[in-house]
Design brief:
Oligomer: single chain
Strand content: 15-25%
Radius of gyration: 22 Å
Number of helices: 14
Distance between the termini: 36 Å
């Protein structure tokens, strides 16, 4: 069971693959099992709470099951899981070793299982012992771990460690082994922007190498600092790059950005967006926003609201500030009342619905990768990250089109994306 980010999901996929090689039956569904492995998250208080609650949810299926816990929440505080009577706890490092201890459990090797907690020291180099065999339409490839930014609200650098990059030959080797049915690669990491080769920024170099595989390429997220004329122009020359930029904002108020320890101004962020649109006029530009950061005044929130409206993002991911013990913000600033956060969240969420509708309306024809069937629709994403719905009844024949890339015409905003029709398979 995996909570949290796409990096966690990749690491879980690697563990699943490793267990399968050892002959275990695995599932990622909530159902009866002998052993549950829970890969936890600590990005917010709610994520940490859900990580603990997952133990109780699984235990309902088998009260006698064994529990192995790993991830950011156990790295932060392992004791909260031992209180839940689990069998083994590790943190972020050495996750793949869980399969070894599951073997020891299977062999009833009590001597080797005596030490139930293994919170290892965070590595200084990229821990390249994870390989995930992926068979879905879209493959997530982890290229980096850790973060050096130390934003004042974020606990992750303390739990994941300093930024470290995966060797380019290792990434290329994994991509070369992907199933032919995988049509899209998403590069993921804790801070993808900080990907380096021999200590020098090299994300564009990596993308240029991966472009030769002929699969769609997408970045999971990036920071404003990465956007330059050279970088964006380089992206525009790639054959398979998907023009979707998840560019983290967090606040549109310079005073809040300073308290957050974000190293840019609202003006600089807007200039980066303008540069992206110079080369990709219809790029999907999504962002993260934190509302209710400690000390955020009504005026500062309005600055953020107006800035977001002015930039005209394609979609927002809105979070209410969550206090994390151990961060600078938790020590220096007083938290706002929950009702203030909720009110601001609701106002931004209403704007988000407006932004999504406006963005869909600007688009006419798109190329969509069909990933799944939901009720009476085939569903997938356009290159610029519009979630597209194709009515099954609109198809002349009822051929299965999952995993297909099709040209579509956008008809209208629909649900969380757009209603479309196929114009060419």
């Amino acid at each position: 069971m995996t909570l949290g980010c796409k990096v966690n999901k990749y690491e879980s996929d690697a563990l699943v693959y490793n267990l399968k090689l050892k002959g275990y039956q695995t599932t990622e569904s909530l159902e009866p099992a002998d052993i549950y492995v829970i890969n936890t998250c600590a990005v917010t208080q709610e994520a940490e709470k859900k990580s603990r609650q997952m133990i109780a949810r699984c235990r309902k299926f088998n009260p006698n099951a064994k529990f192995f816990i790993c991830g950011c929440a156990s790295q932060k505080n392992s004791e909260q899981f031992f209180e839940k009577n689990v069998d083994y706890v590790c943190g972020v490092a050495g996750k793949i070793k869980i399969s070894t201890y599951i073997d020891k459990l299977a062999k009833n090797d009590k001597r080797l299982l005596r030490k139930r907690e293994r919170i290892l020291k965070l590595p200084k180099a990229y821990e390249d012992d994870l390989f995930a065999q992926q068979s879905r339409t879209r493959a997530y490839i982890k290229i980096q771990d850790g973060c050096n930014n130390f934003c004042s609200y974020c606990i992750i650098p303390y739990l994941r460690g300093r930024s470290r990059s995966r060797a380019i030959f290792s990434i290329i080797d994994e991509v070369s082994k992907l199933d032919d049915g995988i049509k899209e690669i998403v590069l993921t990491g804790i801070n993808v922007t900080d990907y380096k080769i021999d200590g020098k920024p090299a994300l564009l170099t990596l993308l240029q190498e991966l472009d030769t595989f002929g699969k769609r390429l997408r970045l999971s997220s990036m920071e404003e600092s990465l956007v330059s004329e050279e970088f964006v122009k380089g992206l525009s020359k790639l054959n398979n790059f998907c023009p979707h930029f998840h560019l983290s904002l967090q606040s549109g108020s310079d005073s809040v950005l300073k308290r957050m320890n974000r190293h840019y101004t609202a003006k600089e962020f807007k200039e980066s967006v303008s540069l992206i649109r110079k080369y990709f006029p219809l790029a999907g530009i999504t962002t993260d926003v934190i509302v209710g950061f400690p000390g955020e005044s009504e005026e500062e929130f309005e600055e953020t609201f107006n800035f977001i409206k002015d930039v005209n993002f394609s979609q927002l991911h809105i979070f209410q500030y969550s206090n994390r013990d151990g961060t600078v913000a938790s020590k220096l600033y007083k938290d706002l009342a929950p009702q203030i956060k909720q009110k601001r969240f609701e106002k931004l969420n209403a704007l988000n619905e407006e932004l999504k509708t406006n963005f869909v309306s600007k688009n006419k024809n798109e190329v969509v990768l069909i990933e799944e069937k939901i009720d009476d629709y085939y569903v997938g994403y356009s290159k610029n990250y519009i979630r597209c719905y194709i009515p099954i009844q609109s198809l002349k024949n009822k051929d299965e089109i999952i995993d297909s890339i099709v040209d579509v015409k956008i008809l209208s905003p629909f649900k969380d994306g757009a209603l479309v029709k196929i114009i060419r398979k």
